[in-house]
Amino acid sequence: MRISSIAYSLKQGIKNIVRNKMFSLASIATMAACIFLLGLFYAVVANFQHIVKSAEEGVSITVFFDEGITQEQIDAIGNEIGKRVEVSKYNYISEDDAWQAAINDYFGGDESVASSFEGDNPLVGSSSYEIYLNDVSMQKALVTYLESLDGVRQVNRSEIVADMLTNFNVLVGYISLAIIIILLAVAVFLISNTVTIGIAVRREEISIMKLIGATDFFVRAPFIVEGILIGLIGSCIPLIALYYMYRNIIQLVTERFKILQGVLTFLPVNSVFEILTPVSLLIGIGIGFLGSFITIRKHLKV
């Protein structure tokens, strides 16, 4: 395609938007609203998932061993645990480490209070592996495997917490998919209507162009450009608004509600928008192209 043809298509696409400014503004506004809601929803969901992921990192499985097991056997079990894809990390806790942790937890680290147990560790035989998962939904499969290992006496896990976190992630996924489909359908419909108006206004001009030998692509290109421009403009506006809104909200919450800093950890602005920006632009351009392309095939017989 020649540069002059590209320039003509771009110029006519802009003219179409200006000529049908009411419908174009309505399409841009709707696209902007869709992308804004999509971006807002993504920011909320991404932060929820980040918080849930932080909570998942605290969910662990504890493996206790049979009485009389040797350190070599314990090390062998550890090697098997380390090979599992479900495992993020694991720590060995000896019976002495377990007793020291109990002193810190129950006696406030006061060694004098626990001195009566000197030389007589009440947690003998309580050495264990503390295992953290890559994904909490993998817990059941890992527990089944661990219980089948020789030398393993007991496996403790947080089944209720794991199920709750897994179900929450599934629910968020379904809700996200439903909202995205609805927003995209609305945007395609409005852009399609805008392009239809443009075709109706230029129908006589298009007929003349065909009579003097214009190709189908040359006739259709301005309408494709129109749809893409509407999608692009409708994506950029909400992205700018969302960027400043998200940054200011995070700053406000951080400064005003410092008590929440230890409970809620928000994703940085760059982490959210390095994904949201290209996705939103691609969605906007894609919807603009799709809406105009479908309309042209339906209403423009060239």
Protein model, in words:
The protein has about 300 residues and is α+β, with helices and mostly antiparallel strands. It folds into two domains: about 5-55 and about 165-300, no CATH class; about 60-150, Alpha-Beta Plaits, CATH 3.30.70.3040. About 70% of the residues lie in helices and about 10% in strands. A four-stranded antiparallel beta sheet has the order 2-3-1-4. Helix 2 (about 20-55) crosses helix 9 (about 270-300). The model has no long low-confidence stretch (mean pLDDT about 75). One of its GO terms (biological process) is cell division. Belongs to the ABC-4 integral membrane protein family. FtsX subfamily. InterPro entries: ABC3_permease_C, FtsX, FtsX_ECD, FtsX_firmicutes-type.
Brief write-up:
This protein is α+β, with helices and mostly antiparallel strands and 302 residues long.
Instruction: Give the number of DSSP strands.
Output: 4
The helix-strand sequence is HHEHEHEHEHHHH
Share of residues in strands: 5-15%
Main sheet? 4 strands, antiparallel
Number of domains: 2
- In whole angstroms, the N-to-C terminal distance is 19 Å
Average pLDDT level: 75
Which key features would you list for this structure?
ABC3_permease_C, 2 domains, 9 helices, four-stranded antiparallel β-sheet, 8% strand
Topology:
Layout: H1 3-19, H2 21-57, E1 60-65, H3 71-82, E2 87-93, H4 95-106, E3 128-133, H5 139-147, E4 152-156, H6 159-201, H7 203-211, H8 216-256, H9 269-299
Antiparallel strand pairs: 1-3, 1-4, 2-3
Helix pairs in contact: 1-2, 1-8, 2-6, 2-8, 2-9, 6-8, 6-9, 8-9
